[in-house]
Amino acid sequence: MFESSEWLYQFEHGGLGFLLWFAPLFVVIYFIPTLVAVMFNRQHLGKIALANIPAGFSVIAWCALIAVAFSGKLILKKSDTKQ
Q1: Is the confidence at residue 78, as pLDDT, over 60?
Q2: Structure pTM?
């Protein structure tokens, strides 16, 4: 029905060697927003790291989190801003 791609074939038929390089690579890619926040947005690092866990399941939320990590800003509530 569906054709398997090469990486999927390797995943299904690969052994421990494939898993040893695929799993760390997957974790690093999944947590790119947190790694970017370490460099650019240390003030909100904990919030970004916490939001990264569910945001990794949505490409749109994951990309938005990368933008927040690069910008160094989080959206503040009106009660938090002093005018």
Answers
A1: no
A2: 0.67
